[in-house]
Amino acid sequence: MTLVEMGMPAVRSRRPALDGRPDTPALVDRFGRVARDLRVSITEKCSLRCTYCMPAEGLPPIPADELLTADEIVRLVALAVEELGVREVRFTGGEPLMRRDLERIIAGCHERVPHTPLAMTTNGVGLAHRARGLAQAGLHRVNVSLDTVDRLGFARLTRRDRLDSVLAGIRAARANGLAPVKVNAVLMRQTLAEAPDLLRWCLDEECELRFIEEMPLDADHEWARANMVTAAELLEVLGARFTLEEVGRLDPSAPAEKWLVDGGPAVVGIIATVTRKFCDTCDRTRLTADGMLRSCLFSDQEFDVRQALRTGADDAEIAEIWRGAMWNKWAGHGIDAENFVPPERTMGAIGG
Ligand code: SAM
Ligand code: SF4
User: Fold this and answer.
1) Residue 142 alpha carbon to ligand 1 centre in Å
2) In this structure, are strands 257-261 and 267-271 parallel, antiparallel, or unpaired?
3) Residue bearing the CA closest to ligand 1, atom 1
4) 305 assigned to some structural domain
5) pTM metric for this prediction
6) For position 221, what pLDDT does the model report?
7) Is the CB of residue 122 below 6 angstroms from any atom belonging to ligand 1?
């Protein structure tokens, strides 16, 4: 099987170009942005099969010897914080809870960089049993993905009947201080009518709900610009049941725009990646589960730090590869361009 058939990009290199880069330790790019938010994918495996993300059969497995080990992840996270100015780290996947050594990864990172917030994006399946241990290991916050509180709707969208486990996971996260719990919901036509019930549930459970416009990163390649649910459509649906008052983007590098619900203080967020793109203020840098650096979800350019790590590169060399990877970051995702081509890796293989 070729790399492309496995959903892996063909464009990989070890030494990025650094021409014109200013002499600064930070992860700057040619467009004046500085990356301070690190997303670390730790697995391609998942307990769900959301239609906007995974194929029904799951992603092709990453061979065990290509997956970064817990120690390698800890080393790279510490380096990113200590040498490159990263200020927040989020673990994602695939589903991070699929890794049995997740607690070890979190504890290792917390020990090396105790003042850096560690967060996780999870589907919440089985979180109820691990929330306490994760909090004790040093995890600060979780975002849980939940698209609907309708059991049938959930089972159809995720191809698994696990709604109860997710709801229990959210409650356990709150009970163990992994707060504030944010809930992420991808905007899909089939669950749009259920959005007000989801908002009601989140208000009652004191979770902050953020809707995300669907991006062309699904393994089944069914995304179509003309079909996608936009932020504007969602506002109409929510507006029929709640009074919404726009407050905008409180932090300029945060992707969610916010609306006060029924006079506040509760808010609902919308991450309108497609129709109100925010690439100009993007501060993300990404590490895949198999040890590739990516500067953007939508670029196929990857830089291999696994090989560097395993062939004896020291921290200074790895930091230089990382700086170069970010220096070459694109201006934006280009979804609306006529010649737009989705990246070869899909969301579950990059880490959202
Ligand atoms: N399994 C975990 C989860 O679902 O939260 C973490 C990985 S998942 C890829 C990270 C986030 O990406 C989730 O909030 C998910 O809803 C979102 N996501 C997946 N596919 C997407 C797509 N095509 N467009 C927009 N968001 C997507
Ligand atoms: Fe799994 Fe998360 Fe993708 Fe859903 S969005 S299939 S939970 S990785």
Assistant:
1) 13
2) antiparallel
3) 95
4) yes
5) 0.94
6) 87
7) yes
